[in-house]
Design a protein that fits this description.
The complex is a heterodimer. Chain A is mainly alpha-helical. Chain A has 19 helices and ten strands. The longest helix of chain A has 25 residues, at 478-502. Chain B is α/β, with parallel strands linked by helices. Classes of the chains: A mainly alpha, B alpha/beta. At the A-B interface, helix 1, helix 2, helix 3, strand 2 and strand 3 of A face helix 1, strand 1, strand 2, strand 3 and strand 5 of B.
């Protein structure tokens, strides 16, 4: 294409002038204002939306959401983000949807932030005392500079409130704009709600306890939930202070907008490895008293190495590992804190034993049983850390059972390997390995059976949480699950009898079994994290 | 209660850099974190919808840092919707167009400088004009840029470049209201002021999901302290229908029979204001005869409502002391939209619900500056709401602008659809698209690729090189966005508000105003626009153009006057001084609020005889009825308050993206779903005669059986819509077409079972 005559000088000048003008910002000079110097509420009515007096003893501040006024504009989310200067994409408030099933046409937007619970689970779980429940206001505050970024509070909070920031390496959460409240200014969400649907009230904590935990009455979960909000987590766990009020009778049942959408959760891979490796370590030390000295030397070394590797891996899960030394602070109530402290002791003891065994010191034998027991205590702490999250898929045997199962299995596989290497008798370990693997797999199969074989074909989503978890394992991570079972079958249930029957002591078979078991348990633990189905606040349909 | 013992600070860090980030500092408008502490603040008007909220932009060194809703602005009273709160975020997006882009020989868009871009612009468009005539180049504008910019574009296009055809995306949202008002009132004049929401005792919302589309206007309803009866007419049980006192879930597109049926009941029961009708309207007798046929039984059958519901509705209108009627896209985007809007106007006229506080037949506008575009885009009407076919109007405008009169075309522009038809027919070869996303938003959008092939040269002027339409362009001109330039918007209630430049445009992006100036320069017609030096200079030109028109705002001094007043509603003539404000208004006592003004308080309309017209026509059935093959009616509309139209801006905010679904979904009634074996959240196909889309099924009884709803924000949606237009306004009928719903092979959440 031929160009017109060469660009004229004035053309260049015009473009330059326009580009120059585009860069000039004059609004400030021409129009800026700083109307008053004193702080004033954004509109006069906000005074009615915050309490006039501070809570008395036995009372605390709470959010109150008038469902009848909330019309779904979601300004609260964005205003909280903007007025609190949160990071890009960080939100402390969220909105969800409740709607009726069947013929009833009903929809209700639900806005939710931290519920500033009477018994905050985040605080209970925090290993470093990074949470504080203000004795005067009841506001649950997160101490950002105290946080080590372990994210355990995210597991503990039934409401998914703490938000992890990988940029900062810590979690942050709603503090009810306590700095604003202290000056009788309304929190950002309260200020910004065009419908005045959110307010701050003062509630008596004993009333919340009575409402959600009726002594002697065995209330159904749904009944308890509807006292708080339909289709939400069990309020008896933490006694959330937020009140959702409506003059209408809400239709039943109400389901969450995201109630039919189950999704895979974060894999937390450092935790997967940490759990499997430390359980291998604990299992190794658990079997150590039963292993002859020659094999014991190797087993202790193996177990110590695994424990150390597991503990190192766990550091990668921390946002601020350099602050992890504080982890003992929460010993009084946090199972994670206990886990960390006990593992610290165990690691030291394990090192002593491993060194003692390697150098054939006589005093070592006095340490065998303590190490064995302490290892099991570690596993107990690990299991309890998940059990107390009150997640149905992680409760009781679903975490403790799995963890002790892995401990016994991997310990036995390790002991077999060590014995095979040292050329000593290993029938006991092979037997235990096969039996414990059988028990563990039947436990896992039982959970998988909660979801019917044709659920995937019928597109029917099971209702119960463990069944949903099973659904995810079978129909979303089917391949992973099959590999997990294959590894376990071969490593834990085929190779030991083969070895027994063949009467061979070849270490190769043992090492193969051990590696397969390790891989199998790692995949099992990956599934444990990825398929955990949880009850949460009603959300938006996604994606 | 757990009392956390406070450990010594040696072990517990109560303070530190991370904590400091969230420490709030007092400012004049509340507490903000230190990293966002401004050194000044200035108010601007939001650039999304036509509510026209005032936003306080927090500045540091003159540049925007953050924003909050302005508590004094008479529109929003300290509130904003999510889009407003996030208005600055899209400006920082990574896919901003930062330099002109020209499609090279390999078909790839490549960065060029402005000089090259504008030379090619001129050369290619002039070449088309030389070959095929001046009319072979056309433009598609917008309701999203400032009035001054729209005016310069309109003047440049029609008076400078000699184009005849120019239209805007306002055709897609407001053309119906424009036509209806023009015919009924004599001028495109939405009569209300937002205070009317607070003064009504009966509020009727027709085809409007106000809670989601205009949350701040819903706020104004909530400020109404007389517990108004709120009646929502919508096929869906929307958020607004949920919040209303009464919801009439009529069949899709049966609104016109419903409104005529109401008129019938009002006539039959003598529930009309004969005095008002006689003094201020013409055509009532014919209308009265016309509605005789719309008996409650017949209307009940057509609308799916009960006779009882119709009676109760009519009674509410009769009982109301101040009844206001409000409509939005549910009315405007229909195959007989103009008559539907006029049927609403007729109800207000016959009951005397006009010109008093809390009354009116009120169209709620869509885009932030649709109202500016309606008066000053110089497309459908000549500047100031005048007529291109009227020689006196042409001469007047030429005189005011000091132009040779022959520069003003004596011919009407094609409407949007006619223009695209002309592209298909080969009449239009060059197209300049400004701040609109035709490839996504136009009805039956799969036709766009074919349109593109027919064009010799397509220029797209946009903030984002990633916009659906920009990807099709031969030349992309990088535009500064809202917040990066100055000018005015006119909101739904006719309030002229000031938009300020508070951020620097990225790279070489220029304001649309400056791009138009550059285009005039390269075109060689800059001397015609020597007075159009800056937006504020153009504002004075527009004042002159408004003189003597119903929209006369010659009394507005300048931008500073707008700034001081919190925006000013037109009309605001210099002489005579505007009457004193209405003492009955329930607006708060702030001096600024004296500006809540409505039209027609004296009952004099803008028609030659000053009387409003009753206009009506026999309803026609939907152009595409459901049948055996396509048994569902597809409804479209706003998905959430966090989404704006085609999402070129709202999708750039991480926070807004959290507030809506990322991919297209379809709402379907559980009864239909269970009949078709569709499980929640599985993927299904929605198929019309024009195209198909795959979407996740969302089962909800808020949609009636036999209907499905797909939000408009997903590009797939308009593959299905039916290109049918209201014959008077040429506005597309987005709201109803026939589709079928199918399970797909991928319907299953996954196909692989276990074992």
């Amino acid at each position: 294409m031929s160009r017109p005559a060469s660009p004229q000088l004035d053309t260049r000048t015009l473009i330059d002038a326009l580009l120059q003008e585009q860069r000039e910002l004059t609004a400030a000079e021409r129009f800026a204002r700083w109307p008053q110097t004193e702080v004033r509420p954004r509109t006069s009515s906000h005074r009615q939306l915050v309490p006039l007096s501070k809570p008395n003893p036995g009372e605390q501040y709470a959010f109150e959401v008038d469902l009848d006024r909330c019309s779904g504009c979601k300004s609260c989310v964005t205003a909280c983000h903007a007025l609190n200067g949160l990071d890009e994409g960080e939100t402390w408030r969220s909105t969800g949807l409740l709607h009726a099933q069947g013929r009833h046409s009903f929809q209700q937007t639900v806005t939710t932030a931290c519920h500033h619970c009477v018994e905050p689970a985040c605080l209970e779980g925090c290993p470093v005392l990074a949470y504080d429940k203000d004795p005067l206001t009841g506001i649950v505050r997160h101490l950002d500079d105290q946080c080590i970024g372990c994210q355990y509070c995210i597991f503990m909070c039934p409401y998914e409130v703490p938000q992890y920031s990988s940029k900062r390496g810590i979690v942050r959460k709603c503090d009810m704009c306590q700095q604003r409240l202290a000056h009788e200014e309304a929190p950002a969400c309260v200020q910004a709600c065009p419908s005045e649907a959110i307010r701050i009230t003062v509630v008596a904590t004993h009333l919340l306890r009575e409402r959600y935990r009726r002594e002697g009455e065995d209330q159904a979960l749904e009944v308890r939930c509807s006292q708080f909000l339909p289709s939400s987590p069990d309020p008896a766990i933490t006694l959330p202070s937020t009140r959702y009020v409506s003059a209408r009778t809400l239709p039943k049942p109400l389901i969450a907008g995201n109630g039919q959408d189950i999704r895979l959760q974060h894999s937390h891979f450092p935790l997967v490895l940490m759990l499997v490796l430390t359980q291998f370590g604990a299992g190794g030390f658990a079997w150590l008293p039963f292993v002859p000295a020659d094999a014991g030397r190797l087993l202790a070394l193996l177990a110590f190495t695994a424990t150390t590797a597991g503990l190192i891996t766990s550091i990668f899960h921390l946002g601020r590992p350099t602050k992890a030394w504080r982890a003992f602070l929460g010993l009084r109530h946090s199972w994670l804190s206990r886990e960390i402290v006990v593992f610290g002791c165990f690691e030291a003891l394990a090192a002593l034993v491993a060194i003692g065994q390697a150098s054939s010191r006589a005093w070592t034998r006095w340490l065998l049983w303590p190490a064995s027991v302490l290892g099991l205590v570690c596993v107990l702490c690990s299991g309890m850390a998940y059990h107390v999250t009150q997640r149905e898929c992680w409760r009781g045997r679903l975490s403790l059972g799995r963890f002790f199962g892995s401990t016994v299995i991997l310990g036995a596989a390790g002991a077999w390997t060590a014995a095979a290497w040292a050329g000593t008798a290993a029938w006991l370990f092979k037997l235990v390995l096969a039996m414990s693997m059988l028990a563990k797999l039947s436990l896992e199969l039982r959970q998988l059976r909660l979801c019917s074989d044709d659920a995937g074909l019928n597109e029917e989503l099971p209702d119960s949480l463990p069944a949903r978890s099973a659904y995810l394992m079978r129909f979303r991570l089917g391949l992973l699950m099959r590999v997990r079972f294959a590894c376990a079958w071969v490593g834990g249930m085929i190779l030991p009898p083969v070895s027994l029957l063949a009467g061979t002591g070849a270490p190769l078979l043992a090492i193969t079994a051990l590696l397969l078991c390790l891989l199998g348990e790692t995949l099992e633990r990956l599934l444990f994290f990825r398929t955990v189905a949880v009850r949460k606040m009603p959300g938006m349909p996604h994606p | 209660m757990i009392r956390q013992s406070r450990k010594p600070s040696l072990l517990r860090n109560w303070h530190g850099p991370l904590t400091q980030d969230l420490v709030l500092h007092p400012t004049a408008f509340g507490r903000v974190p230190s990293h966002l502490k401004p050194d000044a603040v200035t108010r601007t008007v939001c650039g999304f919808c036509s509510t026209g909220c005032g936003l306080d932009v927090h500045l540091r060194n003159g540049e925007a840092l953050n924003l909050s809703a302005n508590p004094d602005y008479p529109v929003n009273l300290g509130m904003a919707c999510p889009k407003g709160w996030e208005a600055l975020t899209p400006l920082r997006a990574v896919d901003r167009a930062t330099t002109p882009l020209l499609r090279n020989d390999k078909g790839i868009l490549e960065a060029v400088d402005w000089d090259t871009a504008m030379q090619v612009f001129t050369l290619r468009f002039k070449a088309i004009q030389d070959k095929c005539g001046a009319e072979a180049v056309a433009w598609l504008g917008t309701g999203q840029i400032c009035t001054e910019e729209l005016a310069l574009l309109g003047a440049l296009g029609k008076f400078g470049m000699g184009l005849v055809h120019g239209d805007g995306n306002t055709r897609q949202c407001m053309a119906t209201a424009v036509t209806a008002y023009k015919e009924s009132f004599g001028f495109d004049a939405p009569p209300y002021t937002y205070a009317d929401f607070e003064a009504s005792d009966v509020i009727i919302l027709i085809g409007s999901n106000l809670c989601i589309t205009h949350p701040i206007l819903w706020q104004r309803i909530l400020r109404n302290h007389q517990s108004p009866e709120i009646i929502v007419i919508d096929p869906r049980k929307t958020e607004t229908a949920m919040a209303a006192s009464r919801h009439l879930a009529l069949k899709p597109k049966s609104d016109l029979p419903l409104l005529y049926g109401l008129a019938h009941l009002l006539v039959a029961n003598n529930w009309f204001d004969q005095d008002y009708i006689t003094r201020h309207t013409t055509g009532f007798d014919a209308f009265r005869r016309f509605v005789r046929g719309f008996t409650p039984d017949a209307v009940a059958a057509q609308t799916g409502l009960t006779v009882g519901e119709l009676y109760r509705f009519a009674e509410s209108i009769r009982r109301g002391q101040a009844v206001s009627f409000w409509w939005t896209m549910g009315v405007n985007q229909g195959h007989e939209a103009t008559r539907t809007a006029q049927a609403i106007i007729n109800l207000a006229l016959m009951t005397g619900n006009l010109g008093r506080p809390g009354t009116g037949a009120n169209s709620i506008t869509g885009q932030c500056n649709a109202m500016g575009s309606r008066l000053f885009s110089n497309t459908t009407s000549l500047f100031g709401g005048r007529d291109f076919l009227n020689a006196a109007h042409r001469e007047h405008v030429a005189r005011v602008l000091a132009l040779p009169p022959e520069r003003v075309p004596a011919k009407n522009s094609f409407a949007y659809d006619q223009m695209l038809q002309a592209v298909t027919d080969g009449q239009i070869k060059g197209l300049w698209i400004i701040a609109t996303n035709t490839a996504h938003s136009w009805i039956n959008n799969s036709s766009f690729q074919e349109l593109r092939r027919r064009l010799d040269f397509l220029v797209v002027q946009d903030m984002f090189h990633s916009a659906d339409t920009a990807r099709f362009a031969d030349l992309v001109l990088p535009a500064a966005g809202w917040g990066e330039k100055e000018g005015t918007f006119i909101n739904s209630e006719r309030r002229i508000g000031l938009v300020k430049k508070v951020a620097r445009a990225p790279g070489q992006a220029l304001s649309d105003f400056n791009i138009f100036k550059l285009a005039a320069h390269y075109w060689g017609c800059a001397e015609l626009f020597s007075a159009w030096t800056s937006p504020s200079a153009v504002f004075h030109i527009l004042k002159k153009l408004s003189a003597g028109q119903p929209c006369d705002f010659t009394g507005i001094r300048d931008y500073q006057h707008l700034e001081e007043s919190g925006g000013i509603q037109w009309p605001w003539p210099a002489e005579p001084a505007f009457p004193s404000p209405d003492p009955q208004s329930r607006a708060p006592r702030s001096a600024l609020r004296t500006q809540e003004r409505r039209l027609f308080e004296d009952g004099r309309f803008f028609t030659p005889d000053t009387k409003a017209r009753f206009i009506f026509e026999q309803p026609r059935s939907q152009p595409e009825m459901v049948d055996e093959d396509y048994p569902f009616t597809l409804l479209t509309g706003r998905g959430s308050s966090a989404q704006w139209h085609t999402g070129t801006r709202t999708e750039k905010s991480d926070v807004l993206r959290k507030l809506h679904r990322a991919t297209v979904y379809v709402e379907i009634n559980p009864q239909d779903a269970s009949r078709l074996g569709i499980a929640p959240e599985t993927q299904i196909a929605v198929i019309s005669r024009r195209g198909r889309l795959l979407a996740r099924a969302f089962l909800t009884a808020t949609i009636q059986p036999g209907q499905v709803f797909v939000p408009m924000h997903y590009a797939e949606t308009n593959r299905l819509t039916l290109p049918v237009f209201d014959p008077y306004s040429r506005q597309p009928s987005y709201k109803a077409c026939a589709v079928r719903v199918e399970k797909t092979n991928t319907s299953r959440r996954n196909r692989k079972g276990w074992a």
